[in-house]
Amino acid sequence: MNFISAMRCRLDNVFENVLFYGKCLGFDLKPDLLACDYVRCNDFTKNFEIDDSSFFIGDNLSHLTTLANTFRETVDLCYIDPPYNTGNKFLYNDSRKGECEGFFGIHNSWMRFMLPRLALAKEIMKRSGVIAISIDDNEFAYLKIIMDTVFGGCNFIGTIVVCRSKNGKGSNKNIAPTHEYLLVYGKSDESKLYGNQDDSNVYDKKDIHGSYKVDGLFRKKGEASLRSDRPNMYYPLYSNPITGEVSVNASPGLIEVFPVDSKGVERRWLWSKETARMRSWQLYSSKKNVIYVKNYSTEGKRIKIRTFWDNAEFYTEKATNEITQIFGNKIFDTPKPLGFIKAIIDSMAKPDAVILDFFAGSGTTAHAAALLNAIDNGSRKTILIENNTDIPVSHIAYKNGFNKISDITNARLEKIHGQNESFKYSVYKNN
Ligand SMILES: C[S@@+](CC[C@H](N)C(=O)[O-])C[C@H]1O[C@@H](n2cnc3c(N)ncnc32)[C@H](O)[C@@H]1O
After folding, report:
1. Considering just the CA atoms, what is the radius of gyration of the chain in Å?
2. Residues whose beta carbon lies within 6 Å of some atom of ligand 1
3. What is the β-pairing status of strands 75-80 and 308-309?
4. How many angstroms separate the alpha carbon of residue 13 from the centre of ligand 1?
5. What's phi and psi for 46, nearest 5 deg?
6. Which of 8, 282, 365, 413 could cross-link to 357 by cystine, CB 3.0-4.6 Å?
């Protein structure tokens, strides 16, 4: 088989997957795939090496097809901020509320737009890859259906609620939404979020082993926590409520404690008596003789990401200020704040991650990755895709010298390079 037919064969497989997911939701995506200009885009990847940032200009369906064909299983983190289908007049089309047709009514055409792109993105992601998608109530439920179909319900990691303003927006009836969502999936059971940086300030106690906090009961809770489940893990401990020390041996002045809960139910400890004997230094007794396991602070420790993000750095207003500061005017309608994208990148992927954003807009993802690299010496690289849609002459961006939306992304990359000359980026554009 020669190179061309090998490529063709791979592409057929990619398309087959996309068509299959489409079929599951009742879409015939053949016409969409046939219309996409991946043939010309294929040329780009001939000499393509991933730079600090690699920017592909044009429709993302074509570029994703090319990347799915030639750069399979490359990406660690995919972050996207697609058009939310608000119906608002932005620089780009944000109205895909078609006729009420098919299974999903007016959501049909937005879903038909998103599904093939997400299916292709999955091909480009590593098996251990993670995808996080910003969305609001307009399409949240329908995006969840697409994601469950393409990535599988078993690969759903979580939904994060992100506060984006204090006062809420819009004139919707009697409710002013102050939040949007970040929907997170893995590609497979190998996918794992890197985790949030731990805050060393919360380790408020200290012993010879280091700083620690007391936040986990030594009595088992929930499933298989009864004495009858593990009889050998039901034994007395001896607590010293004054020093906080715990022992497996009785001594005068120590209080005997069993793993019995507040309702009098006999449960069990987390460890066997032998383990508790060897690691008794790790146990802590409160003044009320409740036994805890000390949680020690360690260098670079990562903790679970929580599902509610409320940080003024993540507010929309912040992003608008940033765009104005960078470009001198509010030339992009719906940017994301740098702090928010930095938080996503830092908590969801390692510092050497390859990150894909195929709704790149003003290029915040590349900027956030570059700033994080400067902070932690990481080697994150980004792949961006943005359309070359014309900007209306009446728009402030046009008046500031931008003819196409992709010109804005490009200009942001140039600015990042201006701040740090070692930041290298390449632009792939079909004429
Ligand atoms: C909500 S904005 C993304 C904003 C971005 N997160 C930022 O911080 O600036 C969505 C972007 O997707 C782009 N877009 C929409 N459809 C596209 C397509 N088919 N191909 C490439 N880009 C597209 C729009 O032009 C718009 O810039």
Report:
1. 26
2. 59-60, 81, 83, 92, 332, 334-336, 359, 361-362, 364, 385-387, 389, 405
3. unpaired
4. 27
5. -55, -45
6. 365
Please, is 95 exposed, middle or buried when counting C-beta atoms within 10 Å of its C-beta (0-12, 13-18, 19+)? middle
- Domain positions in the chain are 3-197+312-429, 200-296
The DSSP annotation for 386-413 comes to E--PBPPTTSHHHHTT--BHHHHHHHHH
DSSP letter string, 306-327: PSEE--GGGSHHHHHHHHHHHH
SS3 203: coil
Q: Which amino acid is at 18?
A: V
Q: What is the DSSP string of 7-61?
A: HHHHHHHHHHHHHHHHHHTT---HHHHHHS-HHHHHGGGGG----SEEEEES-HH
Nearest CA residue ID for atom 7, ligand 1: 335
Please state the pTM of the whole predicted model: 0.89
Report the percent of the chain where pLDDT is more than 70: 96
CA dihedral 50, 338, 151, 5 (to 10 degrees): -20
Those residues with Cβ within 8 angstroms of residue 199's Cβ, 6 or more apart along the chain or in another chain? none
Strand arrangement of the beta sheet that strand 255-257 belongs to = 246-247, 237-239, 255-257
Q: What are 134-170's pLDDT values in tens digits? A: 999 999 999 999 999 999 999 999 999 999 999 887 6
For residue 85, give Cα distances in angstroms to 57, 118, 170: 22, 16, 14
Q: How far apart are CA 242 and CA 225, in angstroms?
A: 28
| Cα–chain center distance at 352 | 16
Could you identify the residue written with the tokens 């792939």?
428
* Amino acid, res. 235: Y
Phi-psi region of 168 (alpha: psi -120 to 50; beta: other; left: phi over 0): left
- Report how far residue 96's alpha carbon sits from residue 92's, in angstroms, rounded to the nearest whole number: 11
Q: Which CATH class is domain 3-197+312-429?
A: alpha beta
Q: For 254-302, write each residue's pLDDT tens digit.
A: 999 999 999 999 999 999 999 999 999 999 999 999 999 999 999 899 9
Residue whose C-alpha is closest to residue 312's, from 178, 172, 418: 178
Kindly report the backbone phi and psi dihedral angles of residue 265, in degrees, each rounded to the nearest multiple of 5, phi listed first.
Answer: -80, 130
Q: Is the pLDDT assigned to residue 3 strictly greater than 50?
A: no
